[in-house]
């Protein structure tokens, strides 16, 4: 006898089957574009197809799809077929042989374990093949020979350990090849005359030499991130003279050799624009290590172990726009290390161990493009009054979470374009009137968690552009805080941050003092021990 539960399941099953049959249909979604539902095999698809249908997407919720062994000539008119939501594909002997005009085929998420050459007889029109998210184990030359006009091939997210040597060699038009997230240990794909984009990221590649990529003379973009690379050998541009983007992020590379950037000949400048070396184990940046990369615009070096930087490490990077060094172990920045980086727009030095910033770190030439400087999460106690004198075009200066006791007016005064200034989580006791006068373009100011007990009386035109400020976590004298918040309300400056405990009443926003007015005198504040009394709460 059937148990009650089995009976319900059986009924449910029958219901679903009927339901599935009920909704089988094709609907027109755009010009020559159709979505067909609950299609079990290519013969059913054939039954719907009209002569002018070009693109079909199959969406199955209750069934998978399989092909038949009978010829289905009506399929020969289709240009695009998307089976990525077909619920799984079982390919018989004929495979896609009847789709003789097919240009784009999406087999993503089809639970395929293999593709055979004979299943792609007659698919010479194919220009895009997406077989991502399947269980393929290998890529063979015979298969790809059936698709001589392929431009775009996506094999990502499979279990591919073996790519047959020269598998892609005969594909004269291939530009994009994605082998991300597979199981390759060695790069064996051999040559291809036209390939522009190659990703072998997130595989198991360990032993690697550039010569493995010899035979890809047009390669412009190479992604090798998230492998097990430890060393990159010399002269990359001898092998890949057209390379513009190189991503080797998230490997175990422990050095950047100066001769890495050799080639493609002594008088030809490498074309590299983007170099992503983030999340590796690089410890040292040597003399002039990047000096040949005159076209480089983006250099990502975050989350390495960099503690030593040569004063000439960035020499020659005349087109560099973005330099990201956050999350390293930098203690000292040598004089002139960023000098003459005249194209630089963004510099991130946060999350290091920097203790001080000297007068000459940015050199004496004005860096007119530099608008964003992040020095937060360091141990900076002292900024030389002239440290930022080459950066009058800064718009954002981030100094959050350091050990600053005071800010020198000589440092701030030249920064007339500053819009965002973060000073929170420092030890600042005072921001004086002259300093605030210089910040007349400021729209955002963070000063929470310092040792401020008062601000100067905020009269016009002080901070006239301010839109947002964070103030909590300071030992404000209550009368001073009242004045401040009144001013903030009047000027419609946002200051309450709901996520912070201070505004929900869990932590005090100010201290009650014996005085009824706001004491704006640091000596008196010290004498009364306001800061200390707040810190004991
Ligand atoms: C294939 O289908 C998947 C899922 O629907 C989609 O994300 C992907 O972009 C498609 N591939 C191409 C090349 O259009
Ligand atoms: C390949 O497919 C994956 C997964 O659908 C997608 O994220 C990736 O962008 C595709 N690659 C290319 C080069 O289009
Ligand atoms: C990868 O190459 C190395 C060195 O050439 C070799 O020892 C290793 O067996 C190769 N691995 C595979 C899976 O072919
Ligand atoms: C490089 O790869 C990392 C993954 O490790 C990725 O997060 C990053 O966006 C990639 N960079 C570029 C420029 O594509
Ligand atoms: C910066 O450029 C100027 C002018 O070309 C030159 O005199 C100076 O030596 C350079 N400084 C550095 C550190 O490269």
From TrEMBL:
InterPro entries in the cross-refs:
Leu-rich_rpt, Leu-rich_rpt_typical-subtyp, LRR_dom_sf, SLRP
Q: Which domain of life is it from?
A: Eukaryota
- The entry's keywords: Leucine-rich repeat, Repeat, Signal
Q: Does the keyword Transit peptide apply?
A: no
Signal peptide per UniProt: 1-20
Q: Kindly state one GO CC term assigned in the UniProt record.
A: extracellular space
Q: Does the keyword NAD apply?
A: no
Question: PANTHER family annotated for this entry?
Answer: AGAP008170-PA (PTHR45712), INSULIN-LIKE GROWTH FACTOR-BINDING PROTEIN COMPLEX ACID LABILE SUBUNIT (PTHR45712:SF22)
Name this polypeptide is given: GH16556
Name of encoding gene? Dgri\GH16556
């Amino acid at each position: 006898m059937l148990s009650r539960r089995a009976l319900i399941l059986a009924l449910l099953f029958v219901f679903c089957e009927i339901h599935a049959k009920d909704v089988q249909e094709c609907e027109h979604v755009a010009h020559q574009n159709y979505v067909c539902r609950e299609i079990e095999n290519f013969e059913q698809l054939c039954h719907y197809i009209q002569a002018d249908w070009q693109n079909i997407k199959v969406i199955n919720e209750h069934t998978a799809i399989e092909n038949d062994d009978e010829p289905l000539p009506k399929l020969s008119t289709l240009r695009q077929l998307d089976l990525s939501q077909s619920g799984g594909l079982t390919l018989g002997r004929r495979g896609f042989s009847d789709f003789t005009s097919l240009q784009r085929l999406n087999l993503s998420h089809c639970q395929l374990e293999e593709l055979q050459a004979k299943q792609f007889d007659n698919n010479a029109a194919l220009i895009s093949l997406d077989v991502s998210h399947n269980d393929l184990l290998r890529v063979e030359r015979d298969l790809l020979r059936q698709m001589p006009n392929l431009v775009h091939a996506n094999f990502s997210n499979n279990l591919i350990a073996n790519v047959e040597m020269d598998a892609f060699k005969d594909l004269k038009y291939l530009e994009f090849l994605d082998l991300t997230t597979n199981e390759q240990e060695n790069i064996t794909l051999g040559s291809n005359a036209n390939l522009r984009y190659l990703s072998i990221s997130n595989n198991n590649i360990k032993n690697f030499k550039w010569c493995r990529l010899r035979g890809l003379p047009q390669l412009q973009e190479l992604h090798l991130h998230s492998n097990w690379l430890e060393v990159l050998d010399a002269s990359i541009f001898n092998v890949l003279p057209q390379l513009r983007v190189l991503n080797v992020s998230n490997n175990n590379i422990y050095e950047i050799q100066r001769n890495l950037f050799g080639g493609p000949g002594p008088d030809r400048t490498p074309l590299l624009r983007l170099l992503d070396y983030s999340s590796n184990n690089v410890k040292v940046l040597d003399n002039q290590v990047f000096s040949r990369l005159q076209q480089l615009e983006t250099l990502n070096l975050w989350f390495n172990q960099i503690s030593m930087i040569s004063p000439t490490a960035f020499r020659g990077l005349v087109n560099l726009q973005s330099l990201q060094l956050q999350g390293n172990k930098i203690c000292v920045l040598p004089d002139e290390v960023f000098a003459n980086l005249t194209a630089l727009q963004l510099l991130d030095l946060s999350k290091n161990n920097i203790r001080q910033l000297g007068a000459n770190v940015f050199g004496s030439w004005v860096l007119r493009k530099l608008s964003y400087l992040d020095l937060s999460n360091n141990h900076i106690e002292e900024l030389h009054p002239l440290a930022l004198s080459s950066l009058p075009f800064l718009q954002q200066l981030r100094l959050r979470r350091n050990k600053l006791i005071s800010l020198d007016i000589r440092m701030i005064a030249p920064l007339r374009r500053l819009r965002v200034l973060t000073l929170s989580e420092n030890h600042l006791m005072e921001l004086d009137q002259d300093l605030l006068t210089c910040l007349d373009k400021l729209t955002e100011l963070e000063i929470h968690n310092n040792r401020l007990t008062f601000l100067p009386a905020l009269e016009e035109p002080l901070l006239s552009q301010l839109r947002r400020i964070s103030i909590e976590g300071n030992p404000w004298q209550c009368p001073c805080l009242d004045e401040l918040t009144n001013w903030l309300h009047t000027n419609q400056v946002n200051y309450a941050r709901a996520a912070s405990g201070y505004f929900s009443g869990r932590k005090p926003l100010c201290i009650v003092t014996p005085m009824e007015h706001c004491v704006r005198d640091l000596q008196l504040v010290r004498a009364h021990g306001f800061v200390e009394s707040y810190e004991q709460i």
